[in-house]
Amino acid sequence: MDQLFEFWYGLVNSGTRFLWVRRPDSLVGIEDNDDIFLQVPTELAEGTRDRGYIVKFVGDVWNIGIDMKDICDRAVIEAMVRDLMEGRRDEFSQRANRLSKSAAQAAVSKTTATAATWGGHDWERRVRQSARVKQGTHGLTVLVTGASGFVGTHVSMALRRRGDGVLGLDNFNDYYDPSLKRSRQKLLERAGIFVVEGDINDRDLLTKLFDVVAFTHVMHLAAQAGVRYAMENPKSYVNSNIAGLVNLLEVCKSANPQPSIVWASSSSVYGLNSKVPFSEKDRTDQPASLYAATKKAGEEITHTYNHIYGLSITGLRFFTVYGPWGRPDMAYFFFAKDMLKGKQIKVFEGPNHSTVARDFTYIDDIVKGCLGALDTAKKSTGTGGKKKGPAQFRIFNLGNTSPVSVTELVSILEKLLKVKANKKILPLPRNGDVPYTHANITLAQKELNYKPSTDLQTGLKKFVRWYSSYYSDSKKKSGSVW
Length: 482
Ligand SMILES: NC(=O)c1ccc[n+]([C@@H]2O[C@H](COP(=O)([O-])OP(=O)(O)OC[C@H]3O[C@@H](n4cnc5c(N)ncnc54)[C@H](O)[C@@H]3O)[C@@H](O)[C@H]2O)c1
Known about the structure:
Number of strands: 19
Largest sheet: 7 strands, parallel
Structural class: alpha/beta
Number of domains: 2
Helix content: 25-40%
Number of helices: 13
Strand content: 15-25%
CATH topology of the largest domain: Rossmann fold
Radius of gyration: 23 Å
Bound molecules: nicotinamide-adenine-dinucleotide
CATH superfamily of the largest domain: NAD(P)-binding Rossmann-like Domain
CATH architecture of the largest domain: 3-Layer(aba) Sandwich
């Protein structure tokens, strides 16, 4: 088996992911994004086998090959090879896509671990400049983790518009198309926001950032998001949402002064809770996915740091956030993409044909909630890693309080995109998704002055406008629609 087939994972310079299977006579590849099946002669694969080896492939496309054998189970490889030999192309594609994503994660952590470059006079100057509060204002100095993510970009822009000092941090992993993260980064750069490329697990980097800048606040949004992907790559959740969080808190507790921390938990912590609308007082001890479990763990972990070290903590449970510059792994986004391509979309229904519904919350409303949380956060009370008195600990729901069924979501998209969806109705698989979410936001209204004001129709219209503009002609067009 080993002599016949070799697997390697390729990252193309555009950010597209490929999984290749090398056979004696050909090289077979799956493009991760679009399921395109490619087949090219073996000669072209020469010299591509070693990890990190760069080879000129076809046309102007450059690949970086990473050996799969280190990062995936032999049994999985063998099953894929059997699929391929016995002509089960669909099964092969599905397995390859799953594997490609886990490999991507492993590859990225490997490459980011070695590729991170920071430090030096110029770098420090950029960090300071980005974190500087606009003259004449009494703004905050905020470290935004996950700044090139969907929510991180919007929050960073909003802070900057007010005159706050903002420094971003992001590891640009390729859980979804990294070129979208790079486009968001460009947008931030144009607004004078520097996004440091690095991982929240890098203690030296975080310590350095706090040496250079006395951050008053941390807006912690970096995380491994997505419910279903947790079954493919559980480690990435533990790595970012637990280990990374603890690392960040360790650095924050030792910083002088300690910053106040506002961070993103998730509505998914309500898990199997069936009492609606979800209130902060409801039970959250029945997570339905590993993602939810890591967010719940985050709530407990932050409580510990609040209790022992006096860190001021505010956790925000976001409910299905959507909007321009959104996440391609979320249903509203890939429904739009597939509908425009004429592809079939899978619409899930709950037990006994019940509707699946979400409390979709527009990004601008979420941003207002985040800013409200930052503005009302009290100072941390510790110094030198020691608690000096009790510190604030809060948790808020940030939702829209009006759940909409997924069927309704599709019909709004149909009108906006002017296409008819080719729907396949399927029972909701047991892979972590819950059938219904609905936020009670009374607490956030009272304490943060949080008032969501965008309905799904209006918000999706803005999303579709952005989507069409961003993906028209070059795919790289960015910044024109904000
Ligand atoms: N979008 C939603 O509907 C939603 C709902 C509930 C909770 N949340 C939470 O809100 C936060 C932001 O979500 P989003 O939708 O913007 O997701 P996103 O994936 O677009 O943004 C997260 C960013 O964090 C970065 N990142 C991940 N791990 C990292 C690490 N170890 N070090 C440095 N950077 C890292 C990623 O590259 C990404 O750019 C996340 O914590 C997410 O779990 C989002």
